[in-house]
Amino acid sequence: MGLNSLAAKMMEIAGPENVLTSELDMYTYSYDSSFHSGLVQLMPEVVVKVKNTAVIARIMQFAFANEIPVTPRGAGSGQTGGSVPANKGILLDLSCWDMIEEIDAKNLQVMVRPGVVHSRLNQALDPYNLFFPPDPGSTKMATIGGMVSNNSSGLRAVKYGNTSQYVLGLEVVLPDGEVIVTGGISSRAMKSVSGIDLTRLFVGAEGTCGIITKVRLKVLPKPAARGILTALFDRLEDSGETVLEVFQAGILPSGIEILDSTAIKAANLFKPELNIPVAEAMLLFEIDGNRPSVEHDGMLLQDIIKKRAKNVEWATEKDRMTKLWEARGVIGSASARVKEGATRVFAGEDITIPLEKVPQALKRIKEIAKKYGIIVVIYGHVGDGNMHTAPIIDPADRNEVQKTLELAHEIHRLAIELGGSTTGEHGVGIVRRPYMREEHGNALDLMLKLKKTLDPRGIMNPGKIWPLEGE
Amino acid sequence: MGLNSLAAKMMEIAGPENVLTSELDMYTYSYDSSFHSGLVQLMPEVVVKVKNTAVIARIMQFAFANEIPVTPRGAGSGQTGGSVPANKGILLDLSCWDMIEEIDAKNLQVMVRPGVVHSRLNQALDPYNLFFPPDPGSTKMATIGGMVSNNSSGLRAVKYGNTSQYVLGLEVVLPDGEVIVTGGISSRAMKSVSGIDLTRLFVGAEGTCGIITKVRLKVLPKPAARGILTALFDRLEDSGETVLEVFQAGILPSGIEILDSTAIKAANLFKPELNIPVAEAMLLFEIDGNRPSVEHDGMLLQDIIKKRAKNVEWATEKDRMTKLWEARGVIGSASARVKEGATRVFAGEDITIPLEKVPQALKRIKEIAKKYGIIVVIYGHVGDGNMHTAPIIDPADRNEVQKTLELAHEIHRLAIELGGSTTGEHGVGIVRRPYMREEHGNALDLMLKLKKTLDPRGIMNPGKIWPLEGE
Question: Do residue B250 and residue A208 have CB atoms under 8 angstroms apart?
Answer without folding.
Answer: no
